[in-house]
What we know:
Its EC number is 2.4.1.135. It is a single-pass type II membrane protein. One of its GO terms (biological process) is chondroitin sulfate proteoglycan biosynthetic process. The chain is of the alpha/beta class. The chain has a domain at about 75-300: Spore Coat Polysaccharide Biosynthesis Protein SpsA, Chain A (Alpha-Beta Complex). The protein contains 10 helices and 12 strands. The strands form 3 sheets. It has a 7-stranded mixed beta sheet with strand order 3-2-1-4-10-6-11, sandwiched between helices. A 3-stranded antiparallel beta sheet has the order 7-8-9, with no helix packed on it. Strand 8 and strand 9 (about 225-230) form a beta hairpin. The longest helix is centred in the N-terminal third of the chain and has 27 residues, at about 35-60. Manganese (II) ion (MN) binds near residues 186 and 188.
Amino acid sequence: xxxxxxxxxxxxxxxxxxxxxxxxxxxxxxxxxxxxxxxxxxxxxxxxxxxxxxxxxxxxxxxxxxxxxxxxxxxxxxxxxxxxxxxxxxxxxxxxxxxxxxxxxxxxxxxxxxxxxxxxxxxxxxxxxxxxxxxxxxxxxxxxxxxxxxxxxxxxxxxxxxxxxxxxxxxxxxxxxxxxxxxxxxxxxxxxxxxxxxxxxxxxxxxxxxxxxxxxxxxxxxxxxxxxxxxxxxxxxxxxxxxxxxxxxxxxxxxxxxxxxxxxxxxxxxxxxxxxxxxxxxxxxxxxxxxxxxxxxxxxxxxxxxxxxxxxxxxxxxxxxxxxxxx
Length: 327
Ligand code: UDP
Ligand code: MN
């Protein structure tokens, strides 16, 4: 229920007016004043309490988009990890997701514990969410200086999101099972709102192009007579599914019907997406979206790592930025 400021003021005014009328009526009347005062104090304190709780309700963030029954839920699984730009990335992504109806964000931290930054962030995000965490094993993690393509990133976290979905939604069977779509959204990409409406009708696996990826202007499926016949990619087109993580969505039914489908964290470079999709569909079964894969609605943007040269220099003089200030 959304409380308007006006409603609270009308309530406040009515309560005050009633109090005044009551006080005037009591004037000149004989009474046992101690008992009378105590009752009045109790009423005042009860009304104060009600006013306080109404004010608190007004402060609570509400999901901006109402949930609509009958509309398939989009489950967005996002791996994320602690770094300087994390809060900025999460702010940008969450504020995109706030515009999407019937969306459930599954944010999975690459960490042995849930961090305060992410926990607090989610509480105030206004989104419907599930907060999970799982650390990437040390041997699978990129080390400082490693090229970014050396090892797949976020595999364990996406699998943890899938595990949660299967455990939570998997209890429902057949006709009881809600319609849903699963999308893997990295925290640093750029998503058009139209993309989410394109994927909402996914029956098995839907696909579309991704901009600024793989050293190309875009990569994506090539469609002829309504079917995907090959892929436009700059590298190893022979891969089973030469698609970027941002370029497909899977129906929840298909995820639940294939309880073993998962991302292979040890897959060779460029084969992470294939390791998940291989057992789920064939190329012929893919559902092309975004005007038969002729529109780019998602971009594989990457954020520059901020340089901390001046911060480091100032810290050496004891003049660094306040470490208590969350960035
Ligand atoms: N990620 C992670 N742990 C890591 C590195 C990355 O969970 O050690 C997440 C990251 O937050 C993002 C996804 O995995 O959501 C893909 O990582 P990144 O954007 O660095 O990959 P790239 O853009 O190079 O494919
Ligand atoms: Mn990225």
